[in-house]
Amino acid sequence: MSGFVSFVSAGPGDPELLTLKAVARLRAADVVLYDDLAAGAILDHARKGATLVSVGKRAGQPSARQEHVSRLLVDYAATGAGVVRLKSGDAGVFSRLEEEVEAVRAAGIGYEIVPGVTAACAAGAATGIPLTRRHTARRVQFITGADANGELPEDLYWAALADPHAMTAVYMGKRTFPKLAAKLIAQGLSPDTPALLAESVGQINQRLVRTTIQKLAEQLAAENVTATAVILYGALAADHSV
Fold first, then answer.
1. Which of 25, 76, 121, 231 is a good FRET partner for 189, with 20 to 30 A between their CA atoms?
2. Tens-place pLDDT, residues 155-210
3. Is 57 tagged catalytic?
4. Is 35 a catalytic residue?
5. Which of 21, 36, 57, 179 is catalytic?
6. Of 232, 212, 63, nearest in space to 145 by CA
């Protein structure tokens, strides 16, 4: 007897940003495996009696191993359960979705992916700015600021990242942003390029800081990095006119 796995996007933390489809899957699930950032009020939508399992991963903190999470998905679904894998942000953006999809595929278990609001879009909305505008920000690019070892990836496409006409969103990049900013400036991007630090977007402790890439690099090099954040930089990151 085989169950089914729904990879559900929880959004950035505000339960009002859940999609109707996400809520429906939570209400129907027998088991919910959830990230730390997808907990709290979002789990209030899970049906009474459902099994709730925390499998969150935080940089620098004790975390569930990816192999263990994938194994749990397969084991629960193999009992015939309807399983929701609740992922923060959008499940398809820097969430290690591919490993979990491969695990359920290999086990012959059916699955679906329910998209949602990713942190970069939520950060733009929270500050009242678009991520694109004709002639000013003609392209949006999402990158990770950390490789598998937590370091700044060395194989990033630096010319594209230093494009002054792009809006760039950096995920998991608070710790490595000073090094990233130095490389961007060396590539010719102005140190005064606007930047936005958006911490805990959509949550009660949300913090939004408008600055420049140079000043943000100096700030992050000096402070203790704890809260999760997305960093936006580009011409619109400090735009108050829209």
1. 121
2. 999 999 999 999 999 999 999 999 999 999 999 999 999 999 999 998 888 999 99
3. yes
4. yes
5. 57
6. 232
